[in-house]
Amino acid sequence: MSRxxxxxxxxxxxxxxxxxxxxLLAERSALALHKDxxxxxxAGGDAxxxxxxTPDNVVVVRPLRSGAISDYDVTAxxxxxxxxxxxxxxxxxxxxxxxxxxxxxxxxxRAMKEATLAAGARSCRLFPQPLAxxxxxxxxxCEPVGSFVVDLGGGKTQVALMSLGGLxxxxxxxxxxxxxxxxxxxxxxxxxxxxxxxxTAEAVKxxxxxxxxxxxxxxxxxxxxxxxxxxxxSIIVTSGEIRExxxxxxxxxxxxxxxxxxxxxxxxxxxxxxRGITLTGGGSLLTGLDILLAEETGVPVHLSDRPFESVVRGxxxxxxxxxxxxxxxxxxxx
Length: 334
Prior knowledge:
Blueprint: E1 4-9, E2 13-18, E3 23-28, E4 31-34, E5 40-43, H1 45-48, E6 58-61, E7 64-65, E8 68-69, H2 72-85, E9 95-100, H3 106-118, E10 123-128, H4 129-136, E11 147-152, E12 157-163, E13 166-173, H5 177-192, E14 194-195, H6 198-208, E15 219-226, E16 232-238, H7 239-245, H8 247-262, H9 266-275, E17 277-280, H10 289-297, E18 301-303, H11 310-318
Parallel strand pairs: 1-9, 9-10, 11-17, 17-18
Antiparallel strand pairs: 1-2, 2-3, 4-5, 4-6, 7-8, 11-12, 12-13, 14-15, 15-16
């Protein structure tokens, strides 16, 4: 009997979940390739750690942007390696359910499906990410009540109100946690004339980044390349500066959340007021984001227990489950 695997192919991280065993595999969505031969030098976390430090004949490729495939061949290679690490092979080709952004086009969905099949899957069906996130955090998305999710991923943010197994209203921002890192890079370059790498910016965000003022101002040392001299240079940045650096993206998230709520039926908005907003996705781990969202919307905000895993676990729940109607699955032929 073929295995069933749920896949969340994200801009920053790819996750594979097998519902039967509960096994979960997480890999960075990156490949290091030899420029001349195209051979895979490193994959996943190993490739991610090579960003900014590769030799001239090696390039690190991140084949997804904003949750959509930007490089089909590299995506197929990445999926093939990830499925192999999840135990799939020539004699055990799995049936798969892949989560896709709710605003993805038919062309983007077809590319995702074909890449998964090319990677060795026996079959591939697609499932909307907001619904998967709702299932993954335990919301009753198939019941006649309003369930509101804000899913802040690596390359895309999805805001959705769901009821009776469908999207009542939704908004998608073409920005996610990776864009917060880019904003930190720009801020340090503009304010200190210092060029820092993507991984450094991410580390600063994780260490002292916040969406809401902290009880104590935290600091971090950042090292990069001085734009004037070209030499290494270290500076000290504060949590307040990082909050300023990412303020534009945070404001866009608030506006999108309010817009999604404003476009929803009053009865379902009343459900949201009493049940609250569920915040999930890796970007939701930004300190104080739940407080900021609650203050700006006037609605209680709940952080999911395992925000990185909510989408893939929700897709895993939908895979072969009698509790989830087949009508929710985006089943199109390649």
